[in-house]
Amino acid sequence: MITEKRKRILIIDDDPDINNLFKLYLEHDGFHIDAFTNPIDALYYFKKDEHDLILLDLKMPYVDGIAMFHELKNRDEKVTICLITADILYMEQLKKIPNIEKYAIHKPILLRNLKDKINEFQKKVKMCY
């Protein structure tokens, strides 16, 4: 689905294979993608009001996803962040953040389901504004 204005998505996942797979698939679907395997690099790059959605892995080196989530929200409280994990312990931590479970993706995920989730998140965000 190519939109009038290309939606910008920031992917932060330390697994280069997942990162590249998501990037290629979503670019093919018409999104503009910025992707990082190092969360520190992503923080340096991130600018307020530049991305419509962030796909953020929870289990990463240097900065874990929960700390990264809070830092990104401090910099841009309006940005939608979707947390991605296969780790059950991180899913338990998610429950501590109000309403965050509706913005979570469990790995593994089929690519067509990823696109459906992104469209679902966009609808939720439109309803909030």
Brief description of this entry?
The chain has five helices and five strands; from the N terminus they run βαβαβαβαβα.
| Strand residues, percent | 15-25%
CATH class: Alpha Beta
H-E string: EHEHEHEHEH
Class based on secondary structure composition and strand pairing = alpha/beta
Determine Rg (CA atoms, Å): 13 Å
Shape assignment? globular
CATH architecture: 3-Layer(aba) Sandwich
Number of domains: 1
Alpha-carbon distance between the termini?
A: 22 Å
Mean pLDDT: 83
Oligomer: single chain
Please report the number of helical segments.
5
Q: Share of helix among residues?
A: 40-55%
Per the CATH scheme, the topology name is Rossmann fold
The total beta strand count reads 5
The residue ranges in which pLDDT falls below 50 over 5 or more consecutive positions are none
- Major sheet strand order: 2-1-3-4-5
Describe the sheet with the most strands.
Answer: 5 strands, parallel
